[in-house]
Structures are given as structure tokens and as C-alpha cells.
């Protein structure tokens, strides 16, 4: 029914104009009432479980690599804050830590930093990807001496 063309006001209908609903015949391709209810309930349960599984999914966004749209995707960062973060990153270089981000961007204090971290914002220590890989390689091969063991 199109409310712009037809009236949406309810009007009584004569009993002889109404059809009665009955169960489908045996062997009919339509589902019976109880089978249909079970299928709808199972589909509803699946949708609820699927929705709850993805509701709390948090994606990590690096503040040193993100563009405005990615920053706006973080809960707690609006268009103005996203532009300010990008402008300050362009002006002053990469952010070294969350403390550096808090010091350089007005309106981001310790409480805001905590909420942004839980929303998925990360700071990659001001290093680019190759520097991070080099740092990981150098720390993987280091072995600490056993306690009481003398190094010669």
C-alpha cells in the first residue's frame, strides 16, 4: 500500500470479504505452522549469535598510518579531531607514544587516550614497518645468560 496514493485509515471489512486461513494440505510444498515457527526461531537465534560475535570486534588503527576516514572510524574521534591528528602528524612528525599524542593534540588527555586505546587506536612507536621488522629481528636472537653463569 502506498500512503501517498491510497488512504492508510483502517476501515472495517465485511466477514464475507475476508478469507480464512487454514493449515496447508499434507504433502504441500509450504511449511506447516509449527515447522515454520521452528525455522524462524532457529534463524533468529543464529542472527543474534552472529550479531553478538561481531558487535565487540575491534580493529587496530595505527595513528601514524591512518587517514582521516580511518581515524573517524575509531569511537571517540570525530572529523575535527581526526583532521587535527593528521595536521599535527604532518607538522611534527610521527607520534612516538600515546603520551606524545596527548601532549601534541589539544583535547586528548589521559582519560581520552585510555578510551581510544580500548577502541582500537595504536601507536607504532614512531617507527616505520622496516624499522619495526629490524628491531624484532635483533631482539629475537638475544639470549639472556642463566642466573649464576659467568660471561667470559
What layout of secondary structure does this protein have?
Blueprint: H1 33-55, E1 61-62, H2 68-72, H3 79-92, H4 98-104, H5 110-119, E2 121-122, H6 129-140
Parallel strand pairs: 1-2
Report on this model:
With 152 residues, the protein is mostly helical. It is built from six helices and two strands, in the order αβααααβα. Strands 1-2 form a two-stranded parallel ribbon. It is elongated.
What does this entry show, briefly?
With 152 residues, the chain is mainly alpha-helical. It has six helices and two strands; from the N terminus they run αβααααβα.
What kind of sheet is the major sheet? 2 strands, parallel
> What's the β-strand tally?
2
Q: Average pLDDT value?
A: 75
Shape descriptor reads: elongated
Instruction: Kindly state the percentage of residues in helix.
Output: 40-55%
Which characteristics define this entry?
152 residues; mainly alpha; two-stranded parallel ribbon; 6 helices; 2 strands; elongated
